[in-house]
Amino acid sequence: MEDRVTELPTALENTQDGNAGIISRMFHVAFVEPKIPPNTGNAIRMVAATGCELHLIGPLDFDLSDARLRRAGLDYHDLASVRVHADLEAAWTVLASAGRVFAFTAKAKLSFADISYRPGDVLMFGPEPTGLSEELLTDPRITERVRIPMLSGRRSLNLSNAAAIAVYEAWRQNGFAGAG
Ligand SMILES: C[S@@+](CC[C@H](N)C(=O)[O-])C[C@H]1O[C@@H](n2cnc3c(N)ncnc32)[C@H](O)[C@@H]1O
């Protein structure tokens, strides 16, 4: 299936820069089948603030004009680079050439903070509430599975919080390149 980038609302269309732009981004944040619009809205605001690109991997149950999503993203939509992929197969054609792919899961043993992140890396997150599938977690295109530490007995963090924690650690390691 092809990417559905042309279906994006006008405010986001101008952020689509084709495959050539894939290496110009500091990091790529990939949300696999996100379900809760405000989480995606939060992530749109976060990638606008950090210069990352957000990849929304469908099928999606909402679209980018959803009021709940736009409210959470405030007026940052114009500043965000967001790409919608129809499905995982379509996303892999772009992401596999981007760089290393780190799958974030509370089930991993390795701490996300033990990775040395490089520009172009992909940080991948699963749907609320099920998380990334076992099939995806064991896909050979996944470089490593990593965990954000939590106190014992806690199941998981909120999706957009997990993504923000991961991006800021990766960006911190790279000297907050580009920050004003
Ligand atoms: C609400 S969580 C999904 C919870 C799901 N029960 C699970 O175990 O993955 C949504 C996504 O946030 C990320 N996430 C949440 N907490 C995490 C943690 N402690 N470590 C790594 N990723 C986490 C994962 O990518 C997860 O798929």
Rg:
15 Å
Taken from the alpha-carbon principal axes, the silhouette is: globular
The percent range for helix content is: 25-40%
Give helix and strand order, one letter per element, not per position. Answer: HEHEHEHEEHEH
**Class from secondary-structure proportions:** alpha/beta
Number of strands: 6
- Under CATH, the topology can be stated as Alpha/beta knot
Low-pLDDT runs of 5+ residues are 4-23
Q: Tell me the strand order in the biggest sheet.
A: 3-2-1-5-4-6
| CATH class call | Alpha Beta
- Report the bound ligands by name, code or SMILES: S-adenosylmethionine
Summed up, the helix count is 6
Look at the structure and name the CATH superfamily: SPOUT methyltransferase, trefoil knot domain
CATH architecture: 3-Layer(aba) Sandwich
What is the domain tally?
A: 1
Biggest beta-sheet profile: 6 strands, parallel
Written account of the structure:
By secondary structure, this protein is of the alpha/beta class. The protein has one domain: SPOUT methyltransferase, trefoil knot domain (Alpha/beta knot, 3-Layer(aba) Sandwich). The chain is 28% helix and 14% strand. It is built from 6 helices and 6 strands. The chain has helices at 10-13, 37-50, 67-72, 88-95, 134-137, 159-173; strands spanning 28-32, 53-57, 81-85, 101-104, 122-125, 144-146. Strands 3-2-1-5-4-6 form a 6-stranded parallel beta sheet. Helix 3 links the parallel strand 2 and strand 3 (81-85). Helix 2 runs parallel beside helix 6. S-adenosylmethionine binds next to helix 6.
